[in-house]
Design a protein that fits this description.
15 helices; 3 domains; 17% strand; elongated; Arc Repressor Mutant, subunit A; five-stranded mixed sheet
Length: 435
């Protein structure tokens, strides 16, 4: 059971994967016509003039050698014109869309409305994931103890968690609710996130745009400035290795490409956003989809480390599946999965109820955090009257929750929150419900 949430504020080591230097359109893997269409849509949305520097910043490609011939093409086709200059060189020219360009841009926006960083190719994405594989993250016992220091775990459970996190494969956490399964998963995620990787803003597949970067699930890491950075491929953004969580909202549809019929672009599913990191399926078994169907969806990715996604055209694309996937459930495994699937899960860990000794440790710790003086006699009262007489199973979350109830009651009565028998009795009567 976690005592407090800690933010991962330390800057992660930068990825060893180096951004390539781009000197020509060919090195981007994209065509001149694709880049011209992208820039033209940008000029259309901009309305007024925009400089070459600003186009480079929006498209995330260097002007010299890459966007320079694109602008020359647009000018030669009379899709745009130079309206001024703010300095030396074509990158300082100010460009504006022409009437002919406006007509063309509207046609392009009927196909898709994407305007932003230029995408990378699927081949480039596969290569980058391969070079930054999760297996490069090595987790040792000392790091695991540090990550789990705010949890009170049985030693047996702790020694199972470390190898599972280090495997970079799959993990099944099960056991009664309230004993810290989600907290264990988040602690594993914090260790996985100690590194950084490059991911693209978007991928181009068969002429379709798939958005990968997600501000909600991806935490950007600032890179040190370099004098030669203008020539680098800034279609890639450096982030902490991701930890993506999905709960009851998870469906089979959200595990495939999500098509936006308005923008005519795709959003990457959970497992693609989690590539190079961890995907936590929390509260497994509570989803709208049947657990058996959901588990069948993972069989090929878990075994082959690749996943297959479907475009609107019906085409299947093969995409890397480099994810530590963690299933966390309060339900009995026998009610969710069969032996064949469990065989494919590398590690299975039961997170059981705390021993009474660990329960005492939790109570003492939460008393200190919440400013309630610890009283051994008060704890003995709770153990005897509620856990022994009423046969209530102890949960790791109980000490925190009981103390929260006690504090609410004390504040209402305008008395100091202490482990007085009367306050404890009222807190427990309010908290425990006979099912």
């Amino acid at each position: 059971m976690a005592v407090r949430e800690r933010e991962n504020t330390a800057a992660p080591p930068l990825p060893e994967f180096e951004l390539p230097v781009l000197r020509s359109i060919e090195e981007t893997g994209l065509s001149l016509s694709f880049l011209a269409d992208l820039v033209l849509k940008l000029l259309y949305y901009q309305g007024q003039g925009i400089t070459g520097f600003e186009i480079s910043d929006a498209i995330k490609l260097p002007f010299n050698g890459v966007l320079e011939p694109v602008m020359d093409f647009l000018k030669s086709e009379q899709f745009c014109e130079v309206t001024g200059s703010g300095g030396f060189g074509e990158s300082s020219y100010q460009y504006a869309i022409s009437d002919k360009g406006t007509t063309k841009a509207r046609e392009l926006l009927e196909r898709n409305m994407y305007v932003g960083p230029a995408p990378v190719t699927l081949a480039q994405y596969r290569r980058a994931i391969e070079l930054q594989a999760l297996t490069q993250v090595s987790i040792h016992e000392r790091e695991m103890r540090e990550a789990l220091r705010d949890l009170v775990l049985e030693e047996k459970t702790f020694h199972q968690v470390g190898p599972a996190a280090n495997s970079a494969r799959s993990l099944f956490l099960f056991g009664p609710p309230g004993n810290g399964k989600t907290s264990i998963a988040k602690a594993i995620g914090s260790v996985v996130m100690k590194g950084a990787i490059y991911i693209p803003y978007a991928i181009l597949v068969e002429g379709q745009i798939i958005k990968v970067y997600d501000q909600v699930n991806h935490e950007q890491v600032e890179l040190p400035r370099r004098s030669s950075s203008r020539s680098l491929d800034h279609r890639w953004i450096v982030i902490r290795r991701p930890m993506v969580m999905a709960g009851g909202e998870l469906t089979l549809e959200t595990l495939d490409l999500v098509y936006n019929p308005i923008s005519k672009t795709y959003e990457a599913p959970y497992q693609v956003r989690a590539n190079g990191g961890m995907l936590l399926i929390d509260d497994f078994g509570r989803q709208m989809v049947r657990p058996h169907d959901l588990l069948n969806r993972w069989i090929v990715p878990l075994e082959n480390k690749v996943d297959y996604l479907t475009l609107q055209t019906g085409s299947k694309i093969e995409i890397p599946f480099d994810v530590l996937i963690v299933f966390s459930t309060n339900l009995e495994p026998r009610d969710l999965v069969d032996e064949a699937f469990l065989r494919r899960i590398r590690h299975k860990i039961h997170v059981g109820n705390p021993s009474f000794e660990n329960y005492r440790k939790l109570f003492k710790r939460f008393c200190k955090i919440k400013g309630v003086p610890y009283d051994e006699q008060g704890l003995v009262y709770i153990l005897k009257e509620y856990y022994q007489k009423r046969h209530i199973e102890p949960r790791a979350c109980h000490p925190r929750d009981i103390l929260d109830e006690l504090i609410d009651i004390a504040h209402y009565q305008q008395v100091m929150p202490t482990m007085h028998i009367d306050l404890l009795r009222r807190a427990c009567e309010s908290y425990f419900v006979e099912l």
